[in-house]
Design brief:
Subcellular location: Endoplasmic reticulum membrane
Largest sheet: 2 strands, parallel
Membrane topology: Multi-pass membrane protein
Keywords: Endoplasmic reticulum, Membrane, Transmembrane, Transmembrane helix
Shape: elongated
Organism: Cotesia typhae
Protein name: Glutathione transferase
């Protein structure tokens, strides 16, 4: 076994559980947003395809092929798109960063900080709690952590 394979194996042993935990939380969050989208569409009687009429009991249905059609539906779609944009990038960058063998404490703090910031950002985006400053802080935290991890990964590989 050469040194590169050994490094990959050690990184997987060291950080595999941490990565699996954060990944599973993010996937559950995205699945929950899918469920919330469906519930909001049923509540507002807003559908995006003719086939969805089967699920509606009311005759007054709004058909919006572009996907929106109601402010609540537009908001949940925006939340979901934002989460997909950030979480997918995060899930692809983190394995490369973990291969650079950061300290476990550093990896633990950065990964959990991103996880907590992203969850708070999603909840604040729902407008359950009106706090624009915290919404901006959580968004900035997520972007800064992605930039830090990306730059560190690139720096370590060159």
């Amino acid at each position: 076994m050469n040194a590169m394979d050994k490094n990959i194996e050690e990184s997987f042993e060291k950080f595999g559980g941490l990565y699996a935990w954060s990944t599973s939380i993010f996937i559950l969050q995205l699945l929950a947003l899918t469920w919330f989208t469906g519930r909001i569409r049923v509540r507002t009687q807003t559908i995006h395809s003719e086939e969805d009429k089967v699920w509606m009991k009311n005759e007054k249905i709004t058909l919006c092929v572009s996907g929106g059609g109601h402010p609540d539906v537009d908001r949940i779609r925006s939340i979901h798109f934002n989460d997909l944009a950030l979480i997918i990038i995060w899930l692809f960058i983190i394995p490369f960063w973990l291969l650079t063998s950061p300290e476990y404490t550093t990896a633990f703090v950065i990964m959990n900080l991103f996880l907590i910031s992203k969850i708070f950002h999603t909840v604040l985006y729902f407008k359950l709690i009106v706090s624009p400053i915290f919404l901006k802080i959580t968004a900035i935290t997520c972007y800064v952590l992605i930039i830090i991890v990306s730059v560190y990964s690139i720096y370590c590989y060159y």
